[in-house]
Amino acid sequence: MALLSFLSKPYHKINALIFSRRSQFEMGDSTSKEGMEGLPFHPANVLEGDPQMRAKTLCLSGDGGFMTGLWDCTQGRFMWYFKCDEVVHILEGEVIVTVGDKTERLVKGSVAFFPIGTASEWHVPNYVFKLFSHRNPTPTAKRLFG
């Protein structure tokens, strides 16, 4: 009977029970670079220059499966491997991204999606500042099955 009661709940409530326990409403300022912290590049991934990157988390779901934050980087060219699904929205500057045989120039206002496992080359001519959203299915799967 308990299972029947559970299954009769609206989908969004079931989804919240399974996937978003411990999550709550959060808000972050996507215009402030204050609080951004430096992150190291793996030396083998740097192809040209001395790019410096920084990031900060704005919002994080309770299970760690979804995160939004800010990231910036100075001039350089490097390989980037996506360990989760990522949507980027360029807020300032530009980056030229190559995935396989396709090259795209992302500028202020550009939005792009990179699926988990994507290998890419990033060329930052001067500077780029982006808002990102990550979806990582691993935390939920580990919690449910492991």
From TrEMBL:
Organism superkingdom: Bacteria
Xref: InterPro entries: RmlC-like_jellyroll (IPR014710), RmlC_Cupin_sf (IPR011051), UGlyAH_Cupin_dom (IPR008579)
UniProt domain (S)-ureidoglycine aminohydrolase cupin: residue ranges: 61-130
PANTHER family: CYTOPLASMIC PROTEIN (PTHR40943:SF1), CYTOPLASMIC PROTEIN-RELATED (PTHR40943)
Entry protein name: (S)-ureidoglycine aminohydrolase cupin domain-containing protein
Lineage of producing organism: Bacteria, Pseudomonadati, Pseudomonadota, Gammaproteobacteria, Cellvibrionales
